[in-house]
TrEMBL record:
PROSITE patterns recorded: STAS
Matching InterPro entries: Anti-sigma_ant, STAS_dom, STAS_dom_sf
Sequence similarity: Belongs to the anti-sigma-factor antagonist family.
Residue stretches making up the STAS domain: 12-114
NCBIfam families: ant_ant_sig
Protein origin, superkingdom: Bacteria
Record-given protein name: Anti-sigma factor antagonist
Organism of provenance: Kitasatospora terrestris
């Protein structure tokens, strides 16, 4: 389900997690552990490559939201890399989280977006 690599040419500390297939409750733990591992490894920017994901359910969305919150709390950056499959895009749209995430359609775009997010002012603790 996941492959991890550094993102050459991106901001220092950028980790890319490449996800594939159907992401549902059966793979939620693996995804959460991969995110935890990247953060524990010092990732300042996390790119989740969803371009090969064909389906995602609410448990996956929960894991993505928690990852986004953790990155914001650490003054880091999370970028979803697409293009997103119609089923994944629909999940984000139906749950009104499509504007919550930064989405890029190329690795170069994801690197650029991550660098821009890392330059933003830090979020106030506890700010929603």
């Amino acid at each position: 389900m996941t492959d991890t690599s550094e993102a050459p040419g991106g901001p220092p500390g950028t980790t890319v997690l490449r996800l594939r297939g159907e992401l549902d409750f059966t793979g939620e733990r693996e995804l959460a552990e991969a995110v935890d591992s990247a953060l524990a490894g010092g990732a300042e920017a996390l790119v989740l490559d969803l371009s090969a994901v064909t389906f995602a359910d609410s448990s996956t969305l929960r894991t993505l939201v928690l990852a986004q919150q953790r990155m914001e709390d650490a003054a880091g950056a999370l970028v979803l890399l697409g293009p997103l499959a119609p089923a994944v895009l629909r999940l984000l749209e139906v749950t009104a989280t499509d504007d919550y995430f930064t989405v890029a359609d190329s690795l170069h775009g994801a690197r650029t977006a991550a660098a821009e997010l890392l330059r933003r002012p830090p979020r106030e603790p506890g700010a929603g």
